Amino acid sequence: MNTPIRDFVTQYAALNAHRYHMPGHKGCGPLGCESLDITEISGADVLYDSKGIIRESEEHAASLFGSARTVYSCEGSSLCIRGMLYLATLYGKMQGCARPLILAGRNAHKAFVTAAALVDFDVEWLYPEGDDSLMSCRITADCLERRLASGVKPVAVYITTPDYLGNLVDVAGLASVCHRYGVLLLVDNAHGAYLNFLPESRHPMALGADLCCDSAHKTLPVLTGGAYLHIGAGAPAWFVEHAERGMALFASTSPSYLILQSLDLANLYLASGYRERLEAFVEAVAGMKKRLIDRGFTLIGDEPLKLCLQAKSYGWQGDKLAGWLGTQNVICEFADPDFVVLMLSCDMDLQPLEAALMELPKKEAILQAPPILPHPKAVLSVREAMMSPCEELPVEACLGRVLADYGVSCPPAVPIVVCGEEIDGDCVACLEYYGVEKCRVVCHGN
After folding, report:
1. Would 187 disulfide with which of 4, 212, 294, 407, CB 3.0-4.6 Å?
2. Mean per-residue pLDDT for 63-84?
3. What pairs with residue 439 in β-bridges?
């Protein structure tokens, strides 16, 4: 498999041309990568109007992932999420929906919330049937079937899988239900680009999703910001034709060719024995997980390349455990009072992580449970709330007020309360539990 973007940039750098074009560093600088950092000069193609080397590279990616069309992002899955929601909303209007409705799992990333404000579609939240955490929302096919059989028909269902804790949703089951009702299935697969390369693919494109995003940089050797928007083989052809348009609306007109090169080179990496290496690595991870369970750790999630520790059962607060790991030079992805999340990549050395965890002293289990997940009432639309004048108040003074701010830390970037919702007592308790001290709320009279 060739690497057209990388080849073009490398050949251009070798010319040592006098660069009377952007960027301003002119190919020289202290980072050492400046010679490979170009702009959309002649021959470099144009992202989101691709006809040359970028389109060729994207077609390689589409063949690897089994999609009808794959479009690159230099701005992470956040851009892809906004793009696919815009496309779904526009498609819904073309089908006669005056104001499209999207059903969404409650653990959606904040990029979904900003998209709701920018595109201005209606949102109905899907909550799990059991007691999931803030970051998990395991919607079942039966649950979705019951909702679609009654109530307003949505344009699309939007789910997040894998979630931040490594739980996988039954995408195939949800896709079957959606398509039976003529509804699109959109998947935030930001954490699961590698799932397509397991012995049996667990990637949304293989399981019937219509559109999905992958953050290539999260689990593949791609520079931060590199991501994919995939259009499924079974999706209406209109989405293939308009995919670039959906991305261009929200994207920078100055894409990073360093990121594009890393996406391009990832195609070669994936096509060169990655499946076999991944299979062996997943087996090694499974062995480590078993030894940790035997040691007394409680693990959650079924995603192969994520290790999520339920810290309190081992006698630790999650953030304290993460701090202890840091003293062992092991840096985790995320921690909160309950969980520690560690993300793994194929071919990495697992020994430092396992050795550190095996040395962690076990203490008496902490029985404190996280607060009940709130189900706040929507008072304003996301767009109305986000565009309203607001004021910042201490959380305890926000009771009964309407949230105006989409801001939430990343990771995990899953909102406790969503713009336009009224902050009730359960919301206050949950915000305080997760260390949120202030909120921006809609000013009175708006």
Report:
1. 212
2. 98
3. 393
